[in-house]
Amino acid sequence: MRIGKALRVLVVAPSRYALRQPHAGGLEACVWDRVRWLRERGHEVTLCAADGSDFLGDVPEFRLPTPEWSRPEESSDTEYPAGYVAAVEAAYDAARERLIADRHLYDVVDNHSLHPAPIRWSREAGIPVVTTLHTPPLEPMLEAAADVRDSPHRFVAVSQATARAWSVEGVDAFVFPNGVDTDQWTRGTGGSSWVWSGRVVPEKAPHLAIEAAREAGAHIVLAGRIGDVDYFEQEIAPRLGAHARYVGPLRQPDLCRLVGSSAVALVTPMWEEPFGLVIAEALATGTPVAAFDIGGVSEVLSGMPGSATVMPGDVVALAKAASRLAAEGAQEPLTRVWTRRAAVRQHSLAQRYREVERVLAHTAQPVPVRRAPAVAW
Predict the structure, then answer these.
(1) pLDDT at residue 367, as a whole number
(2) How far are the Cα atoms of 152, 190, 273, 359 from residue 330, in angstroms, in the given order?
(3) What is the pLDDT of residue 374?
């Protein structure tokens, strides 16, 4: 079902990394897909994102600064270089002033930033805002949420686990899981190697995936951007060799081929994983997934053939689960077909975003004429 009226949407992305391939992480991939999909649906989309992003227009105030590290080895997913925080604050101030001046050009803000400023725009600019919660609770965002209780603002979360974590802190959110483009993430033929993909950071724990593969006597390939250089050098590099290979960050087509040609994908979060887009991506290629059961992982795998979860950190159990899934896939090639079919049914981008489209349209309506959207919460 297409929304009758095209929306004028300002999409706000996180500022740390540009939206472009190879994607810095699942969050950036989700927002990149969101902009592309909304435009394909006929909506007028303006992007506020890090300089260098795809889809950026000609509004300078909507170009956010990216961190500039004096030495590559200092780059981090958790820290910022000197002066960057102040630069981002100034950039969001400029974006807010431009939004206020051009308020008549937008119907709704689709906010994915991890910064509190865009949340407050619903009050300061008098514009409806839908904020998607992609992470566990962040204190600055909680403070901003308390400031907009009487404003035209709505929170949505990417999983029940994430929604519960924010609800404990006083922020209620509807649940709209992420989706993947199953036209791009196509079924692969499988293979003998195992695979791990994602941000190479301690909380994603790829070193435990290497250990599980070693425990099972399997070869594993790791792909993804290094988000913590010290972690990579101390925990990943020493484990590489005959049984483990790191291939760096890959563009989507190359990553799809790698994951789709693997026997099993390992997912090893050691934090409250909000969703785990790599799970849905692997399933869409037909590759089974063995994962640590933490955060929203079990929700993504619910009802999925070709999947198994174990206790977080249990390398031996992960090795056994992955070995079993790989053996089952080798014995019954149709397992990949069934896995792919279930992933399309449950994680298709189109299915997910039609619901999001309705929420954006509903939130954009003036308060006196709002009616309940035709979706099941």
Answers:
(1) 53
(2) 53, 8, 30, 43
(3) 41
In 3D space, the residue among 349, 356, 348, 300 whose CA is nearest the CA of residue 131 turns out to be 356
* Number of residues written out for the chain: 377
Distance CA(206)–CA(198), nearest Å, equals: 9
Amino acid in position 174: F
**Contact, 339 vs 346, CB < 8 A?**
no
Over the chain (377 residues), what is each successive 10-residue block's mean pLDDT? 76 95 94 94 96 95 90 78 93 97 96 97 96 96 95 95 97 93 96 97 98 98 96 97 97 98 98 95 97 96 93 98 96 94 92 85 70 41
- Residue 42, by phi and psi: left (phi above 0), alpha (psi -120 to 50) or beta? left
Nearest to 41 by CA among 342, 280, 361: 361
Residues 6+ apart with CB under 8 A from 214: 239, 243, 244
Q: Which residue has the tokens 């009616």?
A: 371
Cα–Cα distance between 78 and 6 in angstroms, integer? 38
